[in-house]
Specification:
By secondary structure, the protein is an alpha/beta fold. It folds into two domains: 129 residues, Periplasmic binding protein-like II (D-Maltodextrin-Binding Protein, domain 2), CATH 3.40.190; 134 residues, D-Maltodextrin-Binding Protein, domain 2 (3-Layer(aba) Sandwich), CATH 3.40.190. It has ten helices and twelve strands. The strands form two sheets. Strands 1, 2, 3, 4, 7, 8, 9, 10, 11 and 12 form a ten-stranded mixed beta sheet that branches. The chain has a two-stranded antiparallel ribbon with strand order 5-6. The chain starts with a helix and ends in a 22-residue tail after the last helix.
Length: 297
């Protein structure tokens, strides 16, 4: 056997080994840095070392994340369940129904933020309140939102039968600026409490107000919840929507194996996710048992 032939065989062997060892990388869409989805994705990566094949891609929220997944620009996405259901049941997009739940996660609360109502009392002791004190007060008013919260706003509008005009903004800062400037009468955001940016709101200027919508009107989309921000109005009645990690129904063995191993590891680490100091507090609400979309299996 010549040296040239031996070298060729050696090269081919190395090439085969390199190909076999090439890892599968999949992109996962999360909400922006500092969001519940982004934080929880990072927490999973700390307890499951087999998560290194997932690369994070931050988005503006559930709508963009779902769009990227449906357009095959990412392989997984953290999305609000109402956004996914709306795409399936309202938009009748057949691609949405083909997605699978890799992990059913926490419930994110609906935050309805307004300027502090003005309370006045006349000389006869009669009190009048000017401003928004509950969702139904938004009739004929303007509601600002962004990302997946726009879908939530539209679902609530339809279910409650409140004629509110919904304005979509690019992001949180633009929406809050519109509220401060009086361009909208309230802001609606779906975010897991306690949200740092909500806690940072000036309580002398802003308030959290309740969603006075009958539960029967929202069954299948939302469940009752309570907001607890002492400085903004503790014990505010609201609703919450589940956030899930969804993926395409992959058939290729290497992708299926990688995702199933990631799923298995995360499910087995629930206690660690609950108890590790510094992890997102929303982990304490996760059971992996509340699930309303077909599993990836």
């Amino acid at each position: 056997m010549t040296h040239t032939r031996i070298g060729l065989i050696f090269t081919l062997c190395l090439g085969g080994l390199a190909t076999a060892a090439t890892p599968v990388f999949l992109d996962v869409a999360t909400s922006p840095k500092g969001s519940t989805a982004s934080d929880m994705f990072g927490d999973i990566g700390k307890v499951c070392t087999n998560a290194s094949f997932l690369r994070q891609r931050q988005t503006s929220g559930s709508v963009e994340s779902l769009e990227l997944l449906l357009d095959n620009q990412v392989s997984l996405a953290f999305v609000q369940l109402d956004v996914l259901k709306a795409r399936d049941q309202i938009d009748h997009d057949p691609r949405a129904g083909e997605l699978k739940t890799l992990l059913p996660l926490n419930f994110d609360e609906i935050h309805l933020i307004t300027k502090q109502p003005v309370v006045k009392k006349n000389i006869f002791g009669k009190t009048t309140i000017t401003g928004i004190t509950k969702f139904s007060d938004l009739k004929g008013k303007k509601l600002g939102s962004w990302g997946g919260s726009v879908v939530t706003s539209n679902v609530l509008k339809a279910k409650a039968g409140v004629a509110v005009t919904i304005l979509e903004f690019k992001g949180r800062e633009e929406t809050l600026a519109a509220l401060a400037a009086g361009q909208v009468d309230a802001v609606l955001s779906v975010v897991g409490q306690p949200a740092d940016w909500v806690k940072a709101l000036d309580a002398t200027k802003y308030a959290l107000v309740p969603l006075d919508i009958p539960q029967a009107a929202l069954n299948g989309f939302y469940k009752p919840a309570t907001l607890r921000y002492p400085q903004l109005g503790s014990g505010v009645g609201t609703y919450a929507v589940q956030r899930i990690l969804v993926t395409r129904d992959f058939k290729t063995p290497e992708r299926r194996t990688a995702l199933l191993n990631y799923q298995k590891c995360t499910l087995s680490k629930l206690t660690e996710l609950h108890e590790t100091q510094g992890f997102h507090p929303k982990w304490n609400e996760v059971t992996f048992k509340e699930q309303d979309w077909p599993w990836f299996k």
